[in-house]
Queue: 2 jobs
Job 1
Amino acid sequence: MRRIRANAIAILTVAWILGTFYYLWQDSKPHTSPAAAAAAQTRSRSHGQKAAPGRLEIHRDDRTIPLIVTQPPRAEQQVHLLGGFDEKAYLAGKQLKPGDDPYREHAFNLQESDRLGSERAIRDTRHYRCASLNYDTDLPSTSIIITFHNEARSTLLRTIKSVLMRSPPSLIQEIILIDDFSSDREFDCQLLSQIPKVHCLRNGRREGLIRSRVRGANTATASILTFLDSHCEVNTDWLQPMIQRVKEDHTRVVSPIIDVISLDNFAYLAASADLRGGFDWSLHFKWEQIPIEQKMARSDPTQPIRTPVIAGGIFVMDKSWFNHLGQYDTHMDIWGGENFELSFRVWMCGGSLEILPCSRVGHVFRKRHPYDFPEGNALTYIKNTRRAAEVWMDEYKQYYYSARPSAQGKAFGSITDRLTLRRKLNCKPFRWYMENAKNLNNSKHLRLLYERWRLGSPHQICHPLIITLETCNASKSFLYIQVN
Ligand SMILES: [Mn+2]
């Protein structure tokens, strides 16, 4: 009898252990299921590069604070926040006409955005422990830089107002708007400049995100730069964690967890706190699960998550560090690829990248770019990513070209200046980025894979950092990367 009971206990224990391992293994797999891929696609910055994602699936974290973030400001606060700016007149100046397709101009439901108004209560999506963290009382202030091109008035104003409502006023030195030559919007800049702390610059021709941001950074007067997209809503205490980390170490470049604002009904949805930035060899940004070892080592959910790349739309960086590292590659056009160039450069030239789980900013993720690329969407993306690959990826650029054969022979301009910069800054090789910034050596698993590759294992392992399930077709491979 006793033996039977002991056997039963042993069997149950083994089953429990196997179950636990299966659960962890499932959890650490890259996005392979359509639902996970759809969620990843929704969160990815590749607005409209691929087919539309399916059902929106967001990890809802029950441990977050189920509270409303803010009460709408009272009338006297409203005056204080917006000064002489006439919000009603501004919003009424450009409205959807009856019968117009609400998605046509902005690739999100404009009718719903307009209906919401400029301030609303949203859910505090942070882990509950974030609310009890303390930050220095003497944090330096920041210049917020927002570039826009034909942005809807209601989303742009909501971005600006959420910053004013949910940041300690002493931390906001100024909000710099750069109107990137929006069509028939000559007056937007003039009107928005009436809001206290807001300055607006308008480009005389279409420059794109990259040169517009550099223009904004050059006029910024604070020692810390905060780049923000033009269709966001910042959440409670979004700014303090980021400024604190940059104040402690000016070489850190930090970004928030980017929550999802539904493009259909503008619902504010919590994003998973277990993701970091990644990419495939064709240089498409992807969200990926934090590696299992790193996940298991995380005992405190408020701790920063080191990330190989950032999504690029929202981040905080010390201004002198931004300038020291060569700002941006200003020969990149319109949008795309600049986040890889910046991420590689930061890691390889002595800095680091982090996602801070206690900072949350909502963003409207879209399925397509609502604006035109003068040179065409694909050509611009190729030019920009090719510049990033040629300057930073050394011998690894061959993987980029095999994943994106159409990039061969496409013009990408001169990279002499950027190569000179790389030499001047004495940046490490891309191999170092792959092996150290992603910490190959600390992973037994990857070391094993490396050995198998070195000994000539066929098919599955094309390279220690590229693992495929089928053949060594680079376009189907994914990068197995990690940072501890
Ligand atoms: Mn965006």
Job 2
Amino acid sequence: MDIFLLLVTTTIIVQQILSEFQLKTEELKEVMRRMQHEMNRGLRLETHEEASVKMLPTYVCSTPEGSEVGDFLALDLGGTNFRVMLVKVGGDEERSFKVETKHQMYSIPEDAMTGTAEMLFDYIAECMSDFLDKHHIKHKKLPLGFTFSFPVRHEDLDKGILLNWTKGFKASGAEGNNVVGLLRDAIKRRGDFEMHVVAMVNDTVATMISCYYEDRSCEVGMIVGTGCNACYMEEMRTVELVEGEEGRMCVNTEWGAFGDKGELEDFRLEYDRVVDEASINPGQQLYEKLISGKYMGELVRLVLMKLVNENLLFNGEASELLKTRGSFETRFVSQVESDSGDRKQIYNILSSLGLLPSELDCDIVQLVCENISTRSAHMCGAGLAGIINQMREQRRQDTLKITVGVDGSVYKLHP
Ligand SMILES: *[C@@H]1O[C@H](CO)[C@@H](O)[C@H](O)[C@H]1NC(C)=O
Ligand SMILES: *[C@@H]1O[C@H](CO)[C@@H](O)[C@H](O)[C@H]1NC(C)=O
Ligand SMILES: *[C@@H]1O[C@H](CO)[C@@H](O)[C@H](O)[C@H]1NC(C)=O
């Protein structure tokens, strides 16, 4: 076949394969509607149990503006690194501000992660003690906020039961117990400093509150990183799991599990099914698996393998590495898409995977990355539109101006 014709046919077939990832506005609106429907099922007492989107109350409530000022200690535990921070909050009638004055990172040793809950929390208290010593504030009894990014069922702002460890943590005797209680006990066991543990929140909630200090219309928090989750301020009367009618409470949607009851079946592609089946939790967190960084690179790799098998890429031959699950890292997706146009970055990544790409190969790989990350962003945007519609309807407003606080590695690193 003539080389020009070959290029044209290749491009047309690649486009056909990628068209599955391009969602029409009508389809995205459908995702938005289904998300809102499932959110309402999660909020209502009689449907909560069976709803895929759990809508967990956080006990973080709307408060009078600018009421909290002074020095605070903040802890952040959500992975193998643990952070201690000293935060100053100040302000006046008009606005408040926060300044992170000091912070330190500690890494959690393997034996603390996998030993007993006492060992883990003793280690955390030891790090706090070290931090307070270094900054000469051990004599102060500071109020403390704890960002704890594991699944928790809250019973109050300062009381939450750890449901499951995730992310490689195993410390025994913690699951089923109040995390704030475990922390307070560890501080008591040391006896060399005192702390007033005021609140424990999730990373989504921490993101929302943190952004709220700078922008009073921030009432949604979203994480797009290894995982994907969002929270927002819901009317108390709608949060049926908690008594009370007045004001608003922040609800952690746990929307990553959207789709687990079949709501996304008409949107999930063959690649999504392979990713799910090979994961540690098949059938769970299906919406998250379309979006988050833990899966994005692998989705790209599966599409590349499909193109190789159809003889559309790399002369129909994959390297051993490309055939290996997990070899196409999510950070490669960002790197491929930020290539300056000379294909150098793309070429280097593909070479590191043992491939010898042509210019057309590089361009196709870039299209694959763009289509998959764009679908991720659109899916995420559709869910967010569901949340914002819900807020607008519950507030009985025709329009709503709202700010969304966003964090997470994919959001921060993807161009
Ligand atoms: C998806 O891929 C097609 C080629 O199949 C390309 O024309 C299009 O720009 C890509 N879309 C996005 C959003 O990257
Ligand atoms: C909190 O965050 C973690 C990690 O982001 C998540 O797995 C967990 O389900 C979240 N929700 C709650 C209510 O703890
Ligand atoms: C969490 O714990 C529940 C019951 O305690 C169990 O059914 C579920 O599979 C666990 N989930 C994970 C992700 O480990």
